[in-house]
């Protein structure tokens, strides 16, 4: 969801459905294992957050997941990866159908992630920023044994503060750079993006994670942008002061997370590239999807263990993903 003004540049339309699924059901939707379906696309960085949280917290059985294809048209994300082009549980071809079941006059963006109430077939929420917080707090009764605390109470003010900075300048900043309609708007967004990346590099130079000594919500929010940086944002969105691989601290930090269970095993570079280069026809009118970059570097040693820290705190890593949710392995080109 977005708006673009030649003078002001790009601004995200944040009019989401903010109904919440809570332990006490105060919005009319109590947490119930199996009642809801999380709809995502592996291409979308906002949806990717929920995929990582669901894996780390072990909510796969409690909150089943539907995976939309990497591309969409003006109407909606579609379930073209499923047999017959329909989600096997919801029975719909397009996510739009679930939004219209909630509100027949719905006129806002059809976005992922979205959680659908299976009995009614209607979307409950697409408020991605609140979703991961609620997976941490409201769904706690159904976390796996050994699930990490990704939003510890004593660190929440710091996590929230740095999360707002990451959102404004990085998560959304790459879009404001890539979708700018004037040189002035582009340069303003570009400057903010790389100034923030520089500050994050300084913060992470002597600290393995962004807040405290374990992985938190803040790390997940930054990772989903970093993992797309060289594949999409550097060229497609003209975020080209440096590649991620040319920013040593952030590159090592991103590799550390990528090699942590629950992060790299949720990344599908094929879906990511196909989405951005095909859907954004106004930026890439040929629709050509680049063959690179070489993904081999994601599996190289990062050396960040020397900084200490415990990725999962007092918890444990998640087990391997189910066969139905396993992404294709990295295709590492052979060397001459």
From TrEMBL:
Residues 152-276 form the GST C-terminal domain. CDD domains: GST_C_Omega_like (cd03190). InterPro entries: Glutathione-S-Trfase_C-like, Glutathione-S-Trfase_C_sf, Glutathione_S-Trfase_N, GST_Omega-like_C, GST_Omega/GSH, Thioredoxin-like_sf. The record marks 233 as: Lowers pKa of active site Cys. The active site is at residues 44, 175. Residues 296-336 are annotated as: Disordered. It comes from the Bacteria. Gene3D superfamilies: 1.20.1050.10, Glutaredoxin (3.40.30.10). One of its GO terms (molecular function) is glutathione transferase activity. Keywords: Transferase. Glutathione binds at residue 77. GO terms for cellular component: cytoplasm. This is Glutathione S-transferase.
